[in-house]
Specification:
The chain is about 75% helix and about 0% strand. It has about 260 residues and is mainly α. The protein has a two-stranded antiparallel sheet with strand order 1-2.
């Protein structure tokens, strides 16, 4: 697992980078500011065939509270999943079979939740349309390939290195929304993006220094081991020489007697 020594600069960089990444994600979510028009925005136009409906009751506030609680629970569960995966990979190093087990258990969980929430049979049917593409992409790419790749990276670099790239999802979504759907990019999104990139660089710099220090420690241990082994060989050679000298003296004394 990750070791943190706050007295070292590399550990301070990781903590600072993590806080900056979280702050950037919050800025992108909570602050909009002025909208920024890029050169490609005027070439993308989408028809708006709907109008926002104003709701005068308090259901929106209740849904906001429930949604916030569920998002917090989901975030904690997602973080715990990374820790659990890192611990599991120490003893169970087969990434493919572990990915298959995770996807299978996730499928069972999704079936149970869907059965509880959706009682209409029509909602369970998937035809040859966008729903099939979304389900296939989510299962193959977002679950199967993603879990397998993050397991490999986690074995080599640790869970912190893997989770440091999660905020980039918000950045990619904003850029793709602007290119494909013609969505607006606000000032808060640009500020949050800069903060996320700065924090990510700080975390990766700290992890790079961690790896360098680990390599130095391994090299030092190997050097000490080689040195001690060399000393033992020299002692054994000296003992052998001393024994040979004693044998020669004994033989010489016998021949003279």
């Amino acid at each position: 697992m990750e070791k943190l020594d706050i007295r070292k600069v590399r550990c301070q960089a990781k903590v600072f980078g993590t806080l900056v990444i979280v702050g950037g994600a919050m800025v992108m979510t909570l602050y909009k500011g002025q909208d920024i028009i890029f050169f490609w925005s005027k070439y993308i136009h989408h028809s708006r065939n709907y109008e926002p409906v104003e709701n005068t009751n308090h259901s929106n506030e209740k849904d906001l509270v429930k949604g916030s609680i569920l998002v917090m629970i989901s975030t904690l569960a997602w973080a715990a999943f990374f820790i659990l995966q890192a611990v599991t990979l120490r003893r169970y190093t087969a990434q493919l079979s572990l990915t298959a087990i995770v996807c299978f258990l996730g499928t069972l969980q999704s079936i149970v939740v869907t059965y509880v929430m959706e009682h209409k049979i029509s909602n369970w049917s998937i035809g040859w349309d966008m729903n099939l593409l979304v389900a296939a992409y989510a299962g193959i790419v977002c679950s199967g390939i993603a879990y397998y790749v993050q397991g490999i990276v986690m074995q080599k670099r640790g869970p912190v290195f893997v989770t440091a790239f999660n905020p980039l999802l918000m950045l990619i979504v904003v850029i793709m929304e602007s290119f494909i759907l013609g969505g607006k990019i606000y000032l808060g999104g640009v500020i949050g993006t800069c903060m996320i990139l700065m924090g990510l660089y700080s975390v990766l710099w700290g992890k790079y220094k961690d790896l360098k220090e680990q390599e130095v420690e391994i090299l030092t241990k190997e050097t000490k081991y080689c040195t001690s082994e060399k000393c033992m060989m020299e002692i054994m050679i000296e003992d052998a020489k001393a024994n040979d000298i004693k044998k020669q003296e004994v033989n010489l004394s016998k021949s003279q007697g």
